[in-house]
Amino acid sequence: MTRARAILAWGAIAALLAWPLVAAAGSPYLQYRDPVYVAASFAGIAGLSLLVLQPLLAAGLLPALAGRTGRRLHRWTGVALLLAVAVHVAGLWITSPPDMVDALTFTAPTAFSAFGVVAMGALVAAAVLAARRTALGLRPRTWRLAHTGAALVVAAASVSHAALIEGTMGPLSKIAACTAVAGALAVAIRRLRPWAGPARARRDRGAA
Fold first, then answer.
1. Which residue stretches of 26-165 are H helix?
2. In 162-198, which positions are buried (b, 16+ CB within 10 angstroms) versus exposed (e)?
3. How many domains does the chain divide into?
4. Averaged pLDDT for residues 4-20
5. How many CB atoms lie within 10 A of CB 110?
6. How confident is the model at residue 208 (pLDDT cuts 50, 70, 90)?
7. Domain range for 154
8. pLDDT surpassing 90 at residue 82
């Protein structure tokens, strides 16, 4: 990829990730909210944006961030994603503990609450698989399938969670962000081919 194309690619990615944040900054839903709720809302939006980067980093699809650099950043972005979710959940808990109890016990009347909890659980599972890869003693192919499966649940549940909420993100920016999450993961899985053996997967990536 030429330098000009790399700059254009990064510009498009930055614009896509910033769009929901800018839309939320001007949202009337946050005008009379307390700072804790505002921080929780922006943490959730940031988490959705990070879900776009995660699979692209893992698959080495971002300009100038292929190979070990991309995988290293994939791990650190995963940590940032966990922190964003923690801030999101903690802020909502402080704002309204009864609503969070209902969500965590799957007794909330809103479907988006259940999807949010499922996404959080799958994210924790993906993080444990990443952090304890050696200790778990899983075969490489089994580990890749398990980690990818958890990532699929995270993405699907997060997109459903965001799509069902009528809140801070504008409708167009929300559609763009959710579509980007789904598209990034689909492209990454097609490139990484977690169901293939290690040698086959490396050959496929080299031919892509």
1. 35-58, 67-95, 97-104, 111-131, 133-136, 140-164
2. bbebebbbbeebbebbbebbbebbeebbebbbbeeee
3. 1
4. 85
5. 13
6. very low
7. 3-207
8. yes
